Amino acid sequence: MTLDAAKLRREFPILDQLVNDEPLVYLDNAATTQKPQAVLDALTAYYQHDNANVHRGVHTLAERATHAYEGAREKVRRFINAKESAEVLFTRGTTTSLNWIAKSFGDAFVEAGDEIVISYMEHHSNIIPWQQLAARKQAKLVYIDVTADGFLDLEDARRKIGPKTKIVAIAHVSNVLGVINPVAELTQLAHENGGIMVIDGAQSTPHMPVDVQALDCDFYAFSGHKMCGPTGIGVLYGKRAWLDRMEPVEFGGEMIDFVNLYDSTWKELPWKFEAGTPNIAGGIALGAAIDYLTAIGMQTIHEYEQSLVDYALPKLLAIDGLTVYGPQDPAHHTGVIAFNLEGLHPHDVATALDMEGVAVRAGHHCAQPLLNYLKVPATARASFYFYNTKEDADRLVDAILATKEFFQHGPI
Ligand code: PMP
């Protein structure tokens, strides 16, 4: 099945605007995606009709809000094929999810001398919580290499994941190299060595089917705002076997069963982790985003985006002086395309593209260790979603060519 991107994009009101007198081409989807009308409507409908606090109230609005919020949790469960909705924790996003694992699992299970294995291509959110944990526990942080052609080095992973490994934490898809990592193999390696597998799904969950049971990972983290949902809501999936044995990271209302003067007991999963009034509207709207994506089909989205990469990547690689980071073969590159133009700073490139109405990102993409590893201070990055079209790819290529021309010869 294929999708009609031109039709779908009309459901995203923000995309219908001029930027610097040009129709907007939004190619910063790895940073955040735009929201369809259905998601905007879900947010408004909740505040207009159902707004009430969840779990505590007995009145009608409270019941409606609770039903919708817990219904959204069940939608997430189905979306990632978790065994039970108790394994789906709502968080603020991937960063919070990863911090919770590092704090809660780390405090309970990591000991001095244990090893935490990550890779050179991780986002800062999948580095710093582990640095902090390693420092707290006198554990060792170990980095898996990236090959010269932009893949995670599985041979190196086999060398580095061993009996001392307690945690392996790897991005499913790199937010710079655009490569899909072999997370199922890494999970198996981690388990064979008695460790657990944490997957940073920030760049995968929005773009491809994810099945946490098939992957057999112990934890999986992702953000609502990168998959048509609102900001401030995300998910931490964890196997019950671990979550049951972990302590909450935050304490307060909503997460308790009984509060005595000097001690308290916690609610059952998932609520024991969710202290305080949650992001109710965000959870409900994430549920609407999941409905929206599911109606299109995650496999359809994945295949369509790959067809865009098949189209765009060779055109970009054909531009003289343009370097693309990560695999050069479209078959191994997702819609996250980081690049540089010889002799130009990526910030200048992104500013020039913006003048043509093309929104891309420039900078270190929260992956400074990777950029140091690649020996580049920064890159520009175009990132596609299912509402982008081949025309958008053409506009990107034309704008890059115009930018090159401008900086070589001045305005025409
Ligand atoms: N990991 C990866 C791979 C990412 O791309 C991002 C977002 N750029 C994050 C983690 C952090 O996500 P958030 O800012 O939504 O917490």
Decide which structural class fits the backbone. alpha/beta
Helix content: 40-55%
Which fold name corresponds to the CATH topology of the largest domain?
Aspartate Aminotransferase, domain 2
CATH architecture of the largest domain: 3-Layer(aba) Sandwich
- End-to-end separation in angstroms reads 44 Å
Total helical segments: 14
Evaluate the radius of gyration. 22 Å
- Molecules bound to protein: 4'-deoxy-4'-aminopyridoxal-5'-phosphate
Shape: globular
- The low-pLDDT segments are none
Model description:
The chain has a seven-stranded mixed β-sheet, sandwiched between helices. A four-stranded antiparallel β-sheet has the order 13-14-17-16, with helices on one face. The protein is 40% helix and 17% strand. It has 14 helices and 17 strands. The radius of gyration is 22 Å and the shape is globular. Strand 8 (196-200), helix 8 (212-215) and strand 9 form a beta-alpha-beta unit. It has 412 residues and is of the alpha/beta class. The protein has two domains: 5-31 and 298-409, Aspartate Aminotransferase, domain 1 (Alpha-Beta Complex); 40-295, Aspartate Aminotransferase, domain 2, CATH 3.40.640. The mean pLDDT is 97. The two termini are 44 Å apart. The chain binds 4'-deoxy-4'-aminopyridoxal-5'-phosphate. 4'-deoxy-4'-aminopyridoxal-5'-phosphate (PMP) binds at residues 30, 93-95, 123, 125-126, 171, 175, 200, 202-203, 223, 366.
